[in-house]
């Protein structure tokens, strides 16, 4: 097949748009969608100047999504004095998996001449995910522990690094799955929190004094296209799946979405755009009523670590204690 833009040989066909694209037009189209999302989300504050730049911390796991995001951000803003980019990687203590992806992250940040910080669960919490899986004091899936620890580390280090924004590499498939999971659970409050925490355009989002605002500039790009981009640009992405991956429900939703996308191309895009509109309305409603956890006023400080929490002891401190007492 020929590229619809220039007639050269196409490397991909997007059923949702009908377009065939050659390597060069495909790469440009991925970069364009990421830059457009950054613009439309108002990610770069108009107050940012060379004398007072914004700090963007990018969560870099070494997988294809975060590697592509970091590469495109560095290409776009690397020479922009209004933005300082810092890559942040987390080592969870998973043998045969995280060392290889950290290697990939180190090669990428060295190539891009980017500041790179690495944090380990061993140093932060005196534990490794491989051991947590063995002990499992709360009888939960590994990702249920790991997700709590990751959120804590990302938030604390983003604050410590003076981040104005925390950027993560969630792609279109990830976000359409999350949207569908929130629909299926009927959790409208969660939709509102999702919008204010990481989805909406900046002037419209509720400002939280407690959390660094998050952004997901890759969320218009399907997972397969992210993988193809990483391959064509020859980025050092680590592709293997974590041996403890355990989100069974998300896996079911993923399969459902892939089937729907095959018979009805464009399904992921329409789910996400409808979801964002509804989540914005939900966020507005909960902000107006100040109802429930959505409001900052519900948060106090954890008695042990001082992190924002609606309980006496935050979930992270509770889990760390349970693991060490087991
Ligand atoms: Fe942690 Fe689960 Fe991700 Fe593995 S798949 S790194 S256990 S959250």
Explain this structure.
With 326 residues, this protein is α/β, with parallel strands linked by helices. It has one domain: Rossmann fold (3-Layer(aba) Sandwich). Helix content is 50%, strand content 11%. It is built from 12 helices and 9 strands. The chain has helices spanning 23-40, 64-77, 98-112, 121-125, 129-135, 142-160, 172-185, 188-199, 223-232, 248-263, 267-289, 315-325, and strands at residues 12-14, 19-21, 54-59, 83-91, 115-120, 165-167, 214-215, 300-301, 308-309. The strands form 3 sheets. It has a 5-stranded parallel beta sheet, sandwiched between helices. Helix 2 links the parallel strand 3 and strand 4 (83-91). Iron/sulfur cluster is lined by residues 92, 129, 142-143, 146-147, 242, 244-245.
What is the name of the CATH architecture?
Answer: 3-Layer(aba) Sandwich
Q: Mind telling me the C-alpha Rg?
A: 20 Å
Instruction: Work out the helicity level.
Output: 40-55%
Largest sheet: 5 strands, parallel
Bound molecules: iron/sulfur cluster
The overall average pLDDT, rounded, is 92
Percent of residues in beta strands: 5-15%
Number of domains: 1
- CATH superfamily placement: HUPs
Kindly, what is the distance between the CA atoms of the first and last residues, rounded to a whole number of angstroms? 60 Å
Please tally the helical runs, counting DSSP H or I stretches of 4 or more residues: 12
User: Spans of 5+ residues with little confidence (pLDDT < 50)?
Assistant: none
Per CATH, the class reads Alpha Beta
């Amino acid at each position: 097949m020929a590229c619809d833009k220039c007639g050269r040989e196409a490397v991909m066909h997007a059923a949702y748009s009908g377009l065939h694209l050659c390597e060069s037009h495909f790469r440009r189209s991925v970069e364009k969608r990421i830059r457009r999302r950054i613009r439309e989300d108002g990610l770069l504050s108009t107050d940012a100047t060379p004398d007072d730049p914004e700090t963007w911390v990018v969560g870099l796991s070494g997988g294809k999504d975060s590697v592509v995001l970091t590469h495109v951000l560095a290409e776009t803003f690397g020479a922009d004095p209004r933005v300082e980019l810092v890559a942040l990687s987390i080592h969870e203590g998973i043998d045969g998996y995280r060392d290889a992806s950290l290697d990939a992250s180190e090669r990428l940040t060295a190539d891009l001449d980017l500041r790179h910080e690495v944090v380990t669960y061993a140093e932060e919490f005196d534990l490794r995910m491989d051991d947590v899986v063995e002990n499992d004091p709360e009888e939960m899936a590994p990702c249920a522990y790991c997700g709590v620890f990751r959120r804590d580390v990302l938030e604390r280090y983003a604050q410590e690094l003076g981040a104005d924004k925390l950027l993560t590499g969630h792609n279109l498939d990830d976000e359409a799955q999350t949207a569908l999971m929130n629909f299926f659970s009927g959790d409208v409050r969660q939709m509102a929190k999702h919008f204010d925490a990481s989805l909406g355009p900046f002037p419209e989002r509720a400002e939280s004094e407690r959390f660094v605002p998050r952004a997901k500039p890759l969320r218009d790009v399907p997972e397969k296209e992210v993988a193809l981009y990483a391959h064509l640009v020859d980025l050092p992405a680590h592709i293997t799946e974590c041996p403890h991956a355990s989100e069974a429900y998300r896996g079911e939703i993923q399969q459902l979405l892939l089937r729907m996308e095959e018979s009805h191309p464009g399904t992921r895009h329409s789910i996400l755009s409808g979801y964002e509109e509804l989540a914005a309305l939900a966020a507005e409603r909960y902000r107006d009523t100040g109802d429930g956890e959505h409001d900052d006023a519900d948060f106090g400080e954890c008695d042990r670590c001082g992190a924002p929490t609606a309980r006496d002891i935050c979930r992270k401190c509770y889990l760390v204690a349970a693991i060490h007492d087991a």
